[in-house]
Amino acid sequence: MDPFTIAAGVGALGSLFKGILGFGASNAQAQAERNAAQQAEQQGGAAASEQVEEGNAQAATGAVTAAANGGGFVGSSLGVIQNIANKAMFNARTAAQRGRQSAVNAMYDASVSQANGANALIGGALDAGSSLLGGFAKSSAVAQQLAAIKQNRGDVSQAEW
User: At what angle do helices 3-68 and 75-153 cross, to 10 degrees?
Assistant: First the structure.
């Protein structure tokens, strides 16, 4: 084998390994991002629950305070308690939405990583093919040049090369 073919083969192997390793790394990144999406969704739900619990605690404190002051559940005390509950639900919805949006973003990142992995694999295969074809072309060109040189010298025996 001539050195050009050997170099092309080594280059092709390197390109294939690079593509395979890029594919594996991108798939691992995609899995990490899917896990992050799951965690973001769970954290959003937990934050929403905390907001509801905090609102319920504030409303209960307000009701106890109103009852202790002889106000009971009438007038402005009831309005304050309702306002606290409404605010808690708004905060809970906001926290849940943030979690969902973070999860959607992480899933998008995962799909981008997966696509990058496929592209790395395809790119590695194309680079490998290009290396091989380039090596064979160079080898063929050198063989043609040697044949032309030998023919010009009058030596037409191909057994030597």
Answer: 180
Whether residue 107 lies inside any domain: the answer is: yes
pLDDT at 157 over 60: no
Give the global pTM: 0.67
3-state secondary structure of 2: coil
CA distance 144 to 42: 68
Higher pLDDT pick, 18 / 66 = 18
Rounded CA separation 84/65 (Å) = 14
Structure tokens at 111: 């799909």
In a domain, 161, yes or no: no
Per-residue 3-state assignment (H helix, E strand, C coil) for the chain: CCHHHHHHHHHHHHHHHHHHHHHHHHHHHHHHHHHHHHHHHHHHHHHHHHHHHHHHHHHHHHHHHHHHCCCCCCHHHHHHHHHHHHHHHHHHHHHHHHHHHHHHHHHHHHHHHHHHHHHHHHHHHHHHHHHHHHHHHHHHHHHHHHHHHHHHHCCCCCCCC
Q: Is residue 87 in a domain?
A: yes
